[in-house]
Structure formats: C-alpha cells, structure tokens
Amino acid sequence: MADTKVDTTTQSNIHDVASEHIAFDWKVDFDTQVLTGSATHTLKVKKEGASEVMYVHSCCQTFVFL
User: Fold this and answer.
1) DSSP code of 29?
2) pLDDT (0 to 100) of residue 61
3) Over the stretch 17-30, which tens digit does the pLDDT of each residue have?
4) Is 49 left (phi over 0), alpha (psi -120 to 50) or beta?
5) In sequence order, what are the beta bridge partners of 50?
6) pLDDT tens digits along 22-54
7) How far apart are CA 49 and CA 62, in angstroms?
8) How far apart are CA 36 and CA 55, in angstroms?
9) In this structure, how many other beta carbons lie within 10 angstroms of the beta carbon of residue 45?
C-alpha cells in the first residue's frame, strides 16, 4: 500500500475505502438482556487500486479483499 495515507489510531486506509451503507440484522432477547446479530457494510472504493479493507474490533477481526 505504498502512497496511502493511514489513520495512525486505527491503522485503517480511510482515504481509500468508505462505508456507504450499513444494514443491521439484530435479535434482541429481553429476558436475558442479550443483543446478537450482524452488520452488512456496503463499501465505496474512493481510490483506484485499493485492494483491501480491514475491520478490527475487540470481538473480531475481518479482512475484505476488493
């Protein structure tokens, strides 16, 4: 990823790819007070040649290759 600006806090390539829309599919269990589900991201490539997106969270790590 030469020539790419990187967010030093998250190590993300925020200038290359952006989240355009997020769709949530959640299930709420009020008895146990548990929320489960998923999020589907629609991504927009902002820079030609961008080849990957990395999402890191305390629960999981996901790589998406464009």
Assistant:
1) E
2) 58
3) 888 898 999 999 99
4) left
5) none
6) 899 999 999 999 999 988 888 888 888 888 776
7) 20
8) 18
9) 14
